[in-house]
Amino acid sequence: MAERVLGDIGTEVIFENERVRIWEMRLAPGERSAVHRHDLDYILVLLEGDRIAAEPEADTEGPVTERLEADVVPGATVYLTRGGVETAVNIGEQPYREIIIELKD
Questions:
Q1: Cα–Cα distance measured from residue 62 to residue 15, given in angstroms and rounded to the nearest whole number
Q2: pTM value > 0.90
Q3: How far apart (Å, rounded) are the C-alpha atoms in residues 64 and 20?
Q4: pLDDT truncated to tens, each residue of the chain (105 aa)?
């Protein structure tokens, strides 16, 4: 069996220094992110979209252990701890965009 390859947690890094790494994630309607692992605690800032889902992998060690679907509330923020292995899926009809702020140790 081939080893799983994990992708980036966002579309692109928009800022990084010794304390934080900030990503932007953009997903078109129906688009899926790469399967990725969150190695750092992080904060999500929802910017736009209408519905998003997180699909955790069986070996996830993060707070989301079952498929989660949610309405997007622009401006909402969510703090999550490291360890999640998952895929984000835009299950809405609008483009989805969020900022991911990784907190370095």
A1: 24
A2: yes
A3: 22
A4: 567 889 999 999 999 999 999 999 999 999 999 999 999 999 999 999 999 999 999 999 999 999 999 999 999 999 999 999 999 999 999 999 999 999 998
Provide the residue count of the chain. Answer: 105
Q: What angle do CA 91, 59, 48 make, to 5 degrees?
A: 25
Q: Provide the residue range defining the domain that includes 99.
A: 12-103
Q: Look at residue 6 and tell me if it is in a domain.
A: no
Q: 68-71 and 51-56: which strand pairing?
A: antiparallel
- Does 61 fall in a domain? yes
Tokens of 60: 């996830």
Amino acid at 73: V
